[in-house]
């Protein structure tokens, strides 16, 4: 049996969840979304994800008919309908049906749908061994054109970078901004460790302000680690002691090689391993219960 999907006000079988060819989410990537995780019967940082969804929608002037509370219930109920206590949730709001022009005023009703499924991005052994990745030529969108802080349905910038990475058999790409400062990976934020300090790019560089990123910064501060948001370059990654990515799907994952250079001693570092453990503990405690 397939999944039960929340689609435009009702819960339907996945075969019945069909989007119109006139939906501007499809025609133009006009919409916003969230990727959310449920762990041990709780939805991790659900409030933060719902808030970010509405903030993204506000910037693109997309009206969502549901309230925050109703949207929260959609996520919880979709999990219940699929009998999931652990899983990945994709919450999407598109501009809805319009004509073939760009004008969003021709789209009277936005469309909300929610998919909950069991997904795991990387095999467990990569959390112990770490990822080997590359930096790519495709630059992260400049905030002045389309701000990466908006989690929009237009992911072509990230997809172009992902294509470059996969051509070299690299599982991820590190993207730089237009000035050559490190921004983020295609679906994850990046951290480096240097002399005991944890460093990650500030949002103005042009990144999605990841919810996992913020959790990890808090966890590090609780450990008494100095955490800094500051710009850095590829060179700083090469000479870092440790490097890792954070994201809802990837969680906290070590990066041990970048552009063929071993980071530190080429093994996941101690701070990275501690933060992976802290993060896994946090996922047991945080967020509203599904039942
Ligand atoms: N950057 C990008 C471009 C992403 O798509 C994601 C995944 N949502 C992230 C960073 C990580 O954000 P989060 O921790 O909120 O999943």
UniProtKB/TrEMBL annotation:
Belongs to the class-IV pyridoxal-phosphate-dependent aminotransferase family. This is Branched-chain-amino-acid aminotransferase. Pathway: Amino-acid biosynthesis; L-leucine biosynthesis; L-leucine from 3-methyl-2-oxobutanoate: step 4/4; Amino-acid biosynthesis; L-isoleucine biosynthesis; L-isoleucine from 2-oxobutanoate: step 4/4; Amino-acid biosynthesis; L-valine biosynthesis; L-valine from pyruvate: step 4/4. Keywords: Amino-acid biosynthesis, Aminotransferase, Branched-chain amino acid biosynthesis, Pyridoxal phosphate, Transferase. Its EC number is 2.6.1.42. It comes from Metallumcola ferriviriculae. It catalyses: L-leucine + 2-oxoglutarate = 4-methyl-2-oxopentanoate + L-glutamate; L-isoleucine + 2-oxoglutarate = (S)-3-methyl-2-oxopentanoate + L-glutamate; L-valine + 2-oxoglutarate = 3-methyl-2-oxobutanoate + L-glutamate. GO terms for biological process: amino acid biosynthetic process; branched-chain amino acid biosynthetic process. NCBIfam families: ilvE_I, PRK06606.1, PRK08320.1.
